[in-house]
Amino acid sequence: MRIFPPARAVLFDWNGTLLADLSAAYRAWMACFALVGRPRITLAEFRCTYALPWQAFYRRHGVSARQLRREGKRLADRHRRTYGRPPFSPGARQTLRALHRRGITLGILSDEPRHIIVRRLKTSGLRPLFSFIGTSEQYPPKPSPAGVRVFVARARCVPRACLLVGDLRDDLRAGKAAKVRTVAYLRGWQTPALLRKMKPDYAIKNLNEILRLPQLQKP
């Protein structure tokens, strides 16, 4: 059994992890596919093929880079209007507050624009809990470990004392590359089977399970 130092920091993905937005995201992506003349894919296909950066996901399904440049503004508007305002994932608020009370440094690393994340956190009363909000506006998107490494440095802990929680293989790849402990959230955008193949350090079905992980237990 592997023994790691007590966790001092937890870095969360946003979409599909802190937000329960799988249905909303799928609906918005299919509306965008229709806008650029691409056929619908099933939800199962979406969960198996989505990857960062989002432009690569479009190209994987036949949308050219030229088409993305030409239709970029319309696509962003269609996605925003169709996506709506999905709820936080079950247990997210309680888990975040509990971690903060324990003195755990909290962060978010996402491909979502920073102003959208900050606005949602402020309206939900959660903004003061986070000392780090990193996005692909500042750092290369996951699976690059760049943003993870910056968070670890700012949290002033060794990588093994940091947990990264995400619902995509790219989240786990970024965490492994940065040598932090990885936590697969199995109710997000990608299927449990795909995530388990990445051999994360932990796998959870509800965010409040984080509080019971060995690295977060008091000695």
Strand content: 5-15%
How many individual helices? 9
Compute the number of structural domains: 2
Order of helices and strands: EHHHHHEHEHEHEHE
Through-space gap between termini: 17 Å
CATH architecture label of the largest domain: 3-Layer(aba) Sandwich
Overview of the molecule:
- It is a single chain.
- The protein has 219 residues and is of the alpha/beta class.
- It has two domains: 143 residues, Rossmann fold (3-Layer(aba) Sandwich); 62 residues.
- 42% of the residues lie in helices and 12% in strands.
- A six-stranded parallel sheet has the order 3-2-1-4-5-6, with helices on both faces.
- Helix 6 links the parallel strand 2 and strand 3.
- Helix 1 packs across helix 4.
- The two termini are 17 Å apart.
- The mean pLDDT is 95.
Summarize the structure.
By secondary structure, the chain is of the alpha/beta class. 42% of the residues lie in helices and 12% in strands.
Task: Give the helices and strands, then pairings.
Layout (H helix, E strand, L loop, with lengths): L8 E4 L9 H14 L7 H7 L4 H7 L4 H19 L8 H10 L3 E6 L3 H11 L7 E4 L10 H10 L6 E5 L2 H9 L3 E5 L6 H5 L5 E3 L15
Helix pairs in contact: 1-4
Key descriptive features of the protein:
2 domains, 6 strands, Rossmann fold, alpha/beta, six-stranded parallel β-sheet, 9 helices, 219 residues, single chain
